[in-house]
Amino acid sequence: SPVFPGPGLSKGVPNGGMAQFQEEMRQQLETSMHAELEKLLDTATGVSKKDFDGFKKLFHRFLQVEGPSVDWPKIHRPPEDSIQPYDKIAALPLPDSLADSLNKLVVVKLNGGLGTSMGCKGPKSLISVRNENTFLDLTVQQIEHLNKKYNTDVPLVLMNSFNTDEDTKKILQKYTHHRVKIHTFNQSRYPRINKESLLPVATDIGMTGENADVWYPPGHGDIYASFYNSGLLDQLITEGKEYIFVSNIDNLGATVDLNILHHLVSQPNGKRCEFIMEVTDKTRADVKGGTLIQYDNKLRLLEIAQVPKAHVDEFKSVTKFKIFNTNNLWISLGAIKRLQEQNAMDMEIIVNPKTLDGGQNVIQLETAVGAAIKSFDNALGINVPRSRFLPVKTVSDLLLVMSNLYSLEAGSLTMSQKREFPTTPHVKLGSSFTKVQEYQTRFESIPDMLELDHLTVSGDVTFGKQVSLKGTVIIIANHGDRIDIPAGTILENKIVSGNLRILDH
């Protein structure tokens, strides 16, 4: 974020007048921003003024921030009792009737993202991940299974963005006869701002042509304001709902956990826990994940973007910061309402720089849902098994969840009991596999991976049917070469390189 005054702005400013000068600059920028936003609003009908009010607040806070948002020496490890081991929570006996607890719950999935990183158009939640089931299909199956088994009414709420709303709503018709009530609301639409002038790039409120990429959904921290503004939060409270379980729709490990739910609803009234963050042990693959710290006597989420450059390596160390945030969160609906109405939801601003197609440098201001943890009473971290964090961000992740490493039951994926080690293999597929369509043409069937530890594939490689991969397998086709792994091949601790073509006779 900019440190004011900017380059050259302070020339000729007498000492002592600096603070006043900076404040005047901020006020000028804010006045200019408000004027531009009013012009944009004049070009439209039916656009939410609440969106722009939210953006004004965020921009105002952005102008106040100077330098990193954390003072490194004030960071401490959280106290022992503030992060509970999952085993301790799971050791408590569950009541005979879980229906009462489940009827207080709402499942919320963050559904604002597109499938572009996997070469797909449209919402990511509509990509097929297992037996032709999409992320959304699996979510609906999980909740329907709970509602049937316990005779309950756990609804599903999708937080869409302007990128995903239309396509998602079309597909929701197919779940009409499922035993799950589905609600949607939209996160805000904020203007990207010019990095130099700090004014909106948009010339009008439209979203086509020149304006196609000048708007953005402002990160999942926007859930609190958008949920509240939609009226859905109040509706669910009126229906007797008390907690939401929030997670990313692409995290296939984020299923409703009855032990955590019971822990939440069984707290005595004065000690009610308003926020639980599921964390899990860091591995080398998770060094960039946000972690929980103690800061100013509050539990707080520390993201890599907030860390001063000199301390980034320390932040990534697995020894000092041992856990990371899975973004599986359990939050009190009543507390969200209270904090929104008191304007007391405090989240650090993430400044995300982008370059538009025309080469223009812009910034977008975002917040993260977990960053609000410090605003809630009796917040708690629970160190959960790694199995609750199974995100599908790349085609390499997709290969894992489609394989025989996992079995699927009632929408939930669980590690196969036939695998001797509970760890997930490390899979790295090269650039020929980045798009889902390309990936599908390169595998005649998904290989057996029950005994796999590590797989690296690079270059033009295809796999025949019923291939088995064990131990460490590295397959590298150099530029201009192609490797076809024949049907039925068993590769165990092998490096395959060179050229291997199998042609139909």
TrEMBL record:
It holds the Pfam family UDPGP. UTP binds at K124, Q187, G219, D250, K393. Substrate binds at H220. Pathway: Glycan biosynthesis; glycogen biosynthesis. One of its GO terms (molecular function) is UTP:glucose-1-phosphate uridylyltransferase activity. One of its GO terms (biological process) is UDP-alpha-D-glucose metabolic process. Coiled coil: none annotated. Homooctamer. Belongs to the UDPGP type 1 family. This is UTP--glucose-1-phosphate uridylyltransferase. It comes from Oncorhynchus tshawytscha (Chinook salmon).
